[in-house]
Amino acid sequence: GQLAQDGEVARFESRMASFVGVRGAAAVSSGSAALHLALLALKVGPGDEVIVPSYVCPAVLNAVLHAGAAPVVADIEPATFNLSADDTRRRITPKTRAVIVPHMFGLPADLDALGALGIPVVEDLAMSLGSRRRGRRTGGNGSLAVCSFYATKMMATGEGGMVLGGDEALLADVRDLRAMDEKEEFRIRYNCKMTDLQAALGLSQLRKLAGFIARRREIADLYGDALRRLGLPAPAAPGDCEPAWYRYVLMLDGDADPFIEEMKRRGVECRRPVFKPLHRYLRLSGFEASEEAWRRAVSVPLYPALTGAEIETILKALRLVLPRHCTGNVQERRTRGQANQPC
Fold first, then answer.
1. Which of 156, 167, 132 has its CA nearest to residue 26?
2. Which residues contact 70 (CB under 8 A, 6 or more apart)?
3. What is the pLDDT of residue 328?
4. Taking the C-alpha atoms of 328, 334, 337 and 342 in order, what is their torsion angle to the nearest 10 degrees?
5. Nearest to 28 by CA among 155, 142, 189, 179
6. Exposed, middle or buried: residue 335 (CB in 10 Å: 0-12, 13-18, 19+)?
7. pLDDT confidence band for 275 (50 / 70 / 90)
8. 7 or 167: whose pLDDT is higher?
9. pTM for the whole structure
10. Is 343 exposed, middle or buried (0-12, 13-18, 19+ CB in 10 A)?
């Protein structure tokens, strides 16, 4: 009999916190809302700076600007597409209040190196829910973590998001900020609640998440075997990582567009995994690794509902098209710091 935020939301929060391995959680209306409210709970506001990677979707940039802070864009590690700790260190100023760390495409970022910088870390799990690094699940290594449950994410509630963490005071602030009615004192708050309808779907999806991840890994293994038979190296994670394989990303020799068009003609839709890096939106120069990833990276279809016949169509197209766009020059990749990525 309950449609709005109530018992199902509370159960979803509890089970998500247990899954990630943190003390608590606060469900909200979207991943973007989760990022925004996480920054506000960390007291980020006007006059502050937040470091973000360039190679990520604009939701991260929007959250910083909604909080009234200034985004400071940093470059990525070429081999992992994750935020570079070295470049982040160079961009820290006395105004730096937080760093947002998306675990790109399901591969956990190096939170040990980034956490050692002494800045509050907001982990973005939109693409990595269920992945691990050094035996630890992503989401339990920063000041706060955020999830998105949009239709295309690791698990889906249609729309929805969550803030997770071990600091109950921060989570209490998120819970206060997500609803504006029946408060003793006024401050600017938001209408960012999750409904029980979404939470019920989330509970169902969470029970299936391990199976989703296992299927993603099976498909990634099939793609990897096909690439190796072509004499090309397959995308691989560092030995201390268990990726979730949100996306299967290839690095081509040149621009991704001709490859995308050829695959489309063969019935396979591939895309640039990031539509446009943030430094291009902000008209900033530099960011060589992000620029190269934007120009050369391409995402091959990978999601749990892919059928065997669909996978075979993708593999057949890859066998015919990929060798024309990938030389597999290992020495060139190592020079660029991309030894684990084709091509």
1. 167
2. 48, 49, 50, 64, 95
3. 64
4. 10
5. 179
6. exposed
7. very high
8. 167
9. 0.93
10. buried
In this structure, what DSSP letter does residue 82 have?
S
Which two structure tokens, joined as six digits, stand for 82?
């994750």
Report the candidate in 267, 264, 235 with the shortest Cα–Cα distance to residue 252: 235
Q: What is the CA radius of gyration of the chain?
A: 20
**Cα three-residue angle 136-213-34, rounded to 5 degrees:** 65
Residue whose C-alpha is closest to residue 244's, from 104, 85, 113:
104
Look at the alpha carbons of 131, 288, 224, 267 in this order and tell me if their dihedral is positive or negative. positive
Whose CA is closest to 50, among 13, 81, 88, 24?
88
Average pLDDT over residues 21-34: 97
CA 169-173-177 angle, 5° bins:
170
Indicate the residue type of 87.
D
Cβ–Cβ under 8 Å, residues 107 and 128: yes
Distance (Å, whole) CA 144 – CA 142: 5
Residues 6+ apart with CB under 8 A from 231: 328
CA nearest 21: which of 137, 134, 112? 137
Tens digit of each residue's pLDDT (9 = 90 or more) over 117-158: 999 999 999 999 999 998 889 999 999 999 999 999 999 999
What does the pLDDT look like over 58-117, one tens digit per residue? 999 999 999 999 999 999 999 999 999 999 999 999 999 999 999 999 999 999 999 999
**Site of tokens 């509970």:** 203
How confident is residue 333, by pLDDT bands cut at 50, 70 and 90? Answer: very low
How far is 84 from 255, CA to CA, in rounded Å? Answer: 23
